[in-house]
């Protein structure tokens, strides 16, 4: 076979997911997709966040007015999403480093993914509660 | 079932490596990542969850925090590491998905301009913060 003919090869995918030779379509691939999406979203938030914080150099009232929008119900919900995105990115970043630097990392990449998702849920449930409790109680007339 | 996969081995040898920039970038993402886990998760916990979360944040709250050199240094390190970590991540994303050289070039120009703007503005704000500025 010539080099160009070999450039794209038909590979039999049978059984390859279970023995770890094929990453495409594996949960590991989706963890990489989610890592990119959460990273890009966080970068755009950082841009906005430095601009809103810079208002402390304009005047206390200008800053307080913009910060009030962070306390509205919809933006409060977006904050839960931001914390969830950053937390996933941090936990998966630890997993990436373990895959890179720990000898058994590649072997355990999948169990590590399930572990980080469990940790994410365990942190996000109380986290979302404390972030939303005041907004929800104010919306539904509680004191 | 069969899948068409690109061969991992390139048919031609790549040009001789001229710099270790991509290696440094790869290493920086991991080292800054470890620091950012502490800096950013700590920041999010304090600002969004602890003690009433976002509802207690206002100018006076910021003034109280930035009266301490510890939190000034925390926020300054977080700003620089997060902006460069995120900017380098976006550089990789642009390299992966931009299909034309001119698109790639202009997206990177926009990225680098925004990074310089955010780093300069953020650093300026932390160093020149004035708690006695007039209210309006």
UniProtKB/TrEMBL annotation, chain A:
InterPro entries: SdhC_prok (IPR039023), SQR/QFR_C/D (IPR034804), Succ_DH_cytb556 (IPR014314), SuccDH_FuR_B_TM-su (IPR000701). Its cofactor is heme. One of its GO terms (biological process) is tricarboxylic acid cycle. It comes from the Bacteria. The keyword RNA-binding does not apply. Keywords: Heme, Iron, Membrane, Metal-binding, Transmembrane, Transmembrane helix. The chain crosses the membrane at residues 29-51, 72-91, 111-131. It is found in: Membrane. One of its GO terms (cellular component) is membrane. Pfam families: Sdh_cyt (PF01127). GO terms for molecular function: electron transfer activity; metal ion binding. The keyword Iron applies. Belongs to the cytochrome b560 family. NCBIfam families: succ_dehyd_cytB. This is Succinate dehydrogenase cytochrome b-556 subunit.
TrEMBL record, chain B:
Keywords: Heme, Iron, Membrane, Metal-binding, Transmembrane, Transmembrane helix. One of its GO terms (molecular function) is metal ion binding. Its main location: membrane. One of its GO terms (cellular component) is membrane. The keyword Membrane applies. InterPro entries: SQR/QFR_C/D, SuccDH_FuR_B_TM-su. This is Succinate dehydrogenase hydrophobic membrane anchor protein. The chain crosses the membrane at residues 21-46, 105-127. It comes from Actinokineospora spheciospongiae. It comes from the Bacteria. The keyword Membrane applies. It is found in: Membrane.
């Amino acid at each position: 076979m010539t080099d160009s003919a070999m450039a794209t090869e038909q590979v039999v995918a049978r059984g390859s997911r279970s023995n770890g030779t094929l990453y495409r379509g594996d949960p590991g691939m989706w963890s990489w997709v989610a890592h990119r999406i959460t990273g890009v979203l966080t970068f755009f938030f950082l841009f906005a966040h430095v601009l809103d914080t810079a208002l402390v150099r304009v005047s206390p009232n200008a800053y307080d007015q913009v910060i009030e929008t962070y306390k509205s119900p919809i933006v409060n919900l977006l904050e839960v999403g931001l914390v969830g995105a950053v937390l996933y990115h941090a936990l998966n970043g630890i997993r990436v480093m373990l895959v890179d630097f720990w000898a058994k990392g590649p072997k355990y990449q999948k169990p590590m993914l399930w572990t980080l998702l469990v940790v994410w849920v365990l942190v996000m449930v109380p986290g979302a509660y404390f972030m939303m409790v005041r907004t929800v109680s104010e919306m539904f007339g509680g004191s | 079932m069969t899948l068409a996969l690109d061969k991992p081995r390139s048919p031609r040898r790549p040009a001789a490596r001229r710099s270790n920039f991509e290696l440094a970038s790869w290493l920086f993402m991991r080292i800054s990542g470890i620091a950012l886990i502490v800096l950013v998760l700590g920041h999010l916990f304090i600002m969004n969850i602890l003690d009433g979360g976002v509802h207690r944040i206002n100018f006076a709250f910021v003034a109280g925090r930035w009266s301490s050199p510890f939190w000034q240094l925390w926020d300054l390190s977080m700003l620089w590491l997060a902006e460069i970590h995120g900017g380098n991540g976006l550089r990789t994303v642009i390299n992966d998905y931009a299909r034309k050289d001119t698109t790639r070039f202009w997206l990177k120009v926009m990225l680098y301009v925004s990074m310089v703007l955010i780093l300069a503005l953020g650093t300026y704000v932390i160093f020149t913060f004035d708690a006695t500025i007039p209210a309006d």
